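Posted in: Structural Biology > Protein-Ligand Complexes

Title: Requesting predicted complex, fe (ii) ion in pocket

I'd be grateful if someone could produce the 3D structure tokens for the following input. Sequence and ligand are given below.
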Amino acid sequence: MLYDTQGPFRTMVDENTGQVDRSIFADQAIYEVELERIFARAWNFMCHETQIPKAGDFFLSFIGEESVIATRDKKGELQVLLNSCRHRGNAVCRAEEGNARSFLCTYHGWTYGLDGQLIGVPGYKDFYHEQLDKSQWGLVKAGKVASYKGFVFATMDSEAPDLEEYLGPVGRMSIDLIAERGDMEIVGGVQKNLIGCNWKLAVDNLFDFYHPQISHASAFMSGFRKQLEGVDAAEQAIVEKAEINGGIRNAHRVVLGKYGHAIGGPRLTKEVREARALLGPRFEVLTNDNFRMTDSAQEALGEIGLDVNGHPNIFPNLWVATNGHQLSLRLPKGPDKCEIWWFAFVPKEAPDWKKAELIERSIHVFGAAGLLEQDDGENWDQSTRAMKGVIAKRYPLNFSMGLKHGVVNHAEGDLHYIDTTTNEHAQLWTYRGWAEWMDAESWGQLKQISVEHPGDLV
Ligand code: FES
Ligand SMILES: [Fe+2]
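-- Reply #1 --
Done. Output follows.
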């Protein structure tokens, strides 16, 4: 069904001209609607199952600005619980991760089981006269919790579609691009840093292949991309030749799905994949793409997904950074603050040298110490400051690159993609999806008004 109403938020994103109202990046009232209509409703990424393998293991995450505990109960079931005591609201879990038998509130001692049940109340007999119905005062639980190939998500809204349906082919392809690299395990610890920017600018940037040549010029000049020892110039030349033949330097593929999910960025053609595969495992750490030669990856990704080498965003805020075996959350902390989280993965069976190399890359590129995100964060901070200006807000932002030049291919498996050059299709699609989420008053309405896929030309 086509989106035919002009809700108040829909008017802020003009898909015909590519103009987006600046107030969506600065306005406190709009931000509060986002917390309610996007984050409290969406499937939010919590953690990877390897972070909480045993009963009692827990990991603290966020839904919007609210702390939640992702844990595994005694039966081994995944649980996501709001980290707020039902008595006076205190946090019942202060550690970022660990193992617990129960969650004891440090204020007055109410105690909750791993499934959120209220199991202990000091003074239950003497002070409450046994009249407190403990079954009604457990921790608030997520409406739905589910895992896709080990990646755990939760939604607070039980009206939400099931996870696989929510992810759709674009969201599933996004996760497959990491999950199909082998039996993945998470590297201990999550890099976290706060940037003075609106969360949507950080999401927008992950699709942005227009900025690297300018923003990251100094990083490229510094030679920050490590060349692996043993890969000689002749070997690299084979790959470069294939890249030039395949025209992938400027060939991009954008895949767009329901609910605002999108993938945008360079392609990786069959010719280049094959040239890289010839170089063997040493080169694979630099490119991370030989997994595409496996039967399992070919089946999961299909012909369209195998060519995807760009960046996926699972709406609203999960960047699957496929080149680096990483996931990043762009957590909102107010209209002008965003906490960036970086999770890094390694294949369990990989040799130690490869794990070490992957971890080094994870630290070196993105995150607080990463050369690229230091450049990016500075730009987003300055953009966000300017969005607040009463004068600046009168002038929209421009997302018109490639507009009306994006010929959409509609393929089997409900996949809709554009093969093109550097463009802003994925960003505009994300903002369009944002407006749908913001205008919809319920999941029921969102399911109705969210466009299934783009038309023939975007
Ligand atoms: S606030 Fe938790 S027991 Fe009182
Ligand atoms: Fe960047």
